[in-house]
């Protein structure tokens, strides 16, 4: 479809929405009059539940200046960086945005690595390296391959979380070259989302417009009781699920016999090859039955979570011109297997967020009573 001139997308989590997000938005608005978020639903990329319901997080973003927020739905919202980025970029492309904007800790390092990660043989080199060094994780193998071209110091910089995601966005977007790319340097002056969650999401550390939407937040561990029970009860082949190979499957099975809770299971399964985040994602795969096939698909819909005045005309254009369904009223959206699957997960998460039936939700429209 034709690009929507003057529009940009930011793939995000807003877990919670903080001053760093506001800075990123303000910088994006200097180049693009309309900026939308493509935001994770109620499960996020670290393999945890979000700190607040997706409609509340999207509402906070719109109150702070975003022109609209579309959902990056489950299971794509909780996949590894590569698959998370691939799904988010797909929604941005299909919706017709002109540009993709993201923040990175080291902009120049990301730009130096851009052509390397987009080369046809880049992932082949990573796979070959892992094959020869069995205990090597994917992130560490990526760092070693980049070090061959850029040197160890630059490669180490590129192992920071937002640099990793940035390179994955660039890689995914290079497949079709539909989106302009703009990188905004992240400032260390702003507290990270992780540190804010550890502090209990203090209102004084959030933009004043966002704070009311985070009055009652859920801990990162709110879903843990479900994870341990599901892992202990699961009797199928774990290695058929997303993010689980034979080695990790064996460690999870052993840990479920010997350990009593999710935190102990995660600790017992972490290895040189498997980070805690990967283990958490593996446990989510067990709880919700996420298969490798499902994760390899592209999102077949997105949900409108919130919008502001400038975003409403863009939403109409997306609804009219995009082949990707834009769901405004979930109750009226039927016949989509991905949506029905995500709906089952949402009903489990109602216990975490004490939220209404997901079929009864409607988007937050700024200024509408």
List keywords for this structure.
Rossmann fold; 8 strands; 369 residues; 47% helix; single chain; globular; 12% strand; 16 helices; alpha/beta; 3 domains
CATH architectural grouping of the largest domain: 3-Layer(aba) Sandwich
Q: Name the CATH homologous superfamily of the largest domain.
A: HUPs
> How many structural domains does the protein architecture include?
3
What is the string of SSEs from the N terminus onward? EHEHEHEHHHHHEHHHHHHEHEHE
Q: Structural class given helices, strands, pairing?
A: alpha/beta
Query: Can you tell me the CATH class of the largest domain?
Result: Alpha Beta
C-alpha Rg (nearest Å): 20 Å
* Main β-sheet description: 8 strands, mixed
Structure notes:
The protein is of the alpha/beta class and 369 residues long. The protein folds into three domains: 4-105 and 161-216 and 298-365, HUPs (Rossmann fold); 112-157, no CATH class; 224-294, no CATH class. The chain is built from 16 helices and eight strands. Strands 1, 2, 3, 4, 5, 6, 7 and 8 form an eight-stranded mixed sheet that branches. Strand 6, helix 15 and strand 7 (326-327) form a beta-alpha-beta unit. Helix 3 crosses helix 8, helix 5 packs across helix 6 (138-150) and helix 11 crosses helix 12 (262-269). It is globular, with a radius of gyration of 20 Å. The model has no long low-confidence stretch (mean pLDDT 96).
